[in-house]
Prior knowledge:
The chain has 12 helices and 15 strands. The chain is α/β, with parallel strands linked by helices. The chain folds into 2 domains: 313 residues, 3-Layer(aba) Sandwich (Rossmann fold); 71 residues, Immunoglobulin-like (Sandwich). The strands form 3 sheets. The protein has an 8-stranded mixed sheet with strand order 3-4-2-5-1-6-7-8, with helices on both faces. It has a 4-stranded antiparallel sheet with strand order 9-10-15-14. The chain has a 3-stranded antiparallel sheet with strand order 11-12-13. Strand 3 and strand 4 form a beta hairpin. The model has no long low-confidence stretch (mean pLDDT 80).
Amino acid sequence: MRILLFTGKGGVGKSTVAAGTAALAAERGLRTLVLSTDAAHSLADAYGVPEGVVAADPVEVAPRLHLQQVDAQLRFQQSWADVQRYLLSVLDAAGMDPVAAEEMTVIPGAEEVLALLELRLHARSGRWDVIVVDCAPTAETLRLLALPEALGWYIERLLPIQRRLVKALRPVLNRAAGVPMPGDSVFDAVNRLHAELDEVHELLAAPESTVRLVLTPENVVLAEARRAYTSLCLYGYRVDGVVANRVFPQGSDDSWRAGWVQAQDEVLGRVHQSFAGLPVWRSEYQPAEPLGVPALRGFAASLYADADPLEVPGGDGPFRVTRADGGDAVLHLALPFVSRAEVDLARNGDELVVTVGSARRLLTLPPGLARLDVAGARVHEGELQVRFAAPDRAMGGAR
């Protein structure tokens, strides 16, 4: 099964590109689902589907093409009900107004998280050949894709301790604090959420799952796309291409358009340099907004031309381990556009903590590496390389 995620800075046309790619896949005879993790939910508008037709379950909008806009409230109640009930009881004991308490217990970004859980269910169903995900704008998407590992750290290390403490001290805490302490159902709900998000991470880090960056030829947009590429690689996700959207056509006699053509050409040159090795598909400004399945399908056919938009890229992905001379091991992590000075490394037991700017990833080392010490590190040609050696050969940590 092929999974394609589309993301980019808000307003670059990623929903149009995602909708068109899904329509093209369905025309090829593939059972295709397109869903959105963006709270704006503009896919139905793009396909020209009337309000009320799209429901919480997939709806067929063309042969073999199904659209779903996740019902966040319904999925939230199903996945978070036990935790919400506990939080409401705490706020009630504190004297908070019930309506305000209800609002306080809704997690910011819950809709995007639950859309990923919906993706997991569809991937496990075996019903689809292709799933296309119209993601939220870049920053929200990166926070979302980092969530499984971040929550995993909390679940595996802190939650068992808290659970034991609460169980032992619940009678005392109930009397002293005057509010109810969480029961096993609350901890079980958090554990269940973690297990489901962990499955999502494995699913999206698989070779058949890739992220496609959508941008417009503008310097600010390109800068954000470069940062997104770095962060996606850091978290282990594969980027398989870039869509340059809304490109002005060449050969205009209008001086205003000619100025834009020249400015865009300069940025497009930097796009090809920045994403060397990745396909860059261009889409010129359309004479009219592509709305409806036929128009979107034609838009995508023109965008990809003779290329296969569903091709699974080869290669090792952003993370791999090789053997070096003398029996040492080298961990390779793709980090495009990053210098060694921007990378901070720390070792914590069987984990390697990699920090790049405000992004941080805790890499759980394979057993073969966990037994070794860090002997050195460097960033070379867009790749972080960390050398591991036996304790008697290591030189005392990353440099």
